[in-house]
Structure formats: structure tokens, C-alpha cells
Amino acid sequence: MTSQPVQPMAAWFEIPVTDLARAQAFYDDVCGWTSQVVTNMGPNPIVVLDGGDVAGGGHLYEGKPAAAGTGATTHVTINGSLEAAAERAIKAGGQIVGPIVPIPHGRFQYMIDPDGNSIGLFELAKAA
Fold this sequence. Notes:
Blueprint lengths: L12 E5 L2 H12 L4 E3 L7 E3 L9 E5 L11 E4 L4 H10 L3 E9 L2 E7 L5 E7 L4
Parallel strand pairs: 1-4, 5-8
Antiparallel strand pairs: 2-3, 3-4, 6-7, 7-8
Helix pairs in contact: 1-2
């Protein structure tokens, strides 16, 4: 068996959206972020999600989202409480899917964004 030099992990994610400005406003509101438009990372502008340029993360780009229920689920860490983020998601046109799920490192809840992307909203556990 060959060994890996580092632990395998996701390094970056991309979320396709139909309207970049609308999606930036949605994610910043729901997650409590301040994301940035970047124009020098390729042929088209992207929105680098809050903290994404520091250590891992992702961005939004104008593209064609997968059909509902067929794409991968991207989990994002929110600022603040999961309940508040879920409430903001609903008010901003998202859909909450299923209950809050507690896990050892925090809690998450699934959401469908206005473009139909499956997103896991994740709240880190408070340090003891």
C-alpha cells in the first residue's frame, strides 16, 4: 500500500449560480460573511466566499447548477447560530431540508439555495 504525504481532504469547492451578485448577497446574509468579487482568477469574475482565500474554501461562479437532488452537497461553516442562519436562508429564498443534526464537532442542517444547490450549514461546537 502506498502512503499519502498528507491527509486527503477537499482543498476547494465551486458553487454554480445563475446570478453572481444575488448569490453573493444570499450567502453573505445567510452565513454572516463578507465575500469578495475577484476578477483575476480566470476568464470570468468569481465571488471568493468569506475566508476562502486564507485556508481552503471556495467560490461562487456563474454557471449551470446541477438538477435538484443530483449534485454534491457542499458544507459551509456559518457565523452565529444555526437556527438564525436557517431563518435567514428561508427569508432570502432558500429552503431548509431536514432537522438539525448534532455531531461531535458541531451541528449541521441541509439547505437548498435559490439555484437548487444542496448546502450543509455547519455550526462549529463551542470550545469547552
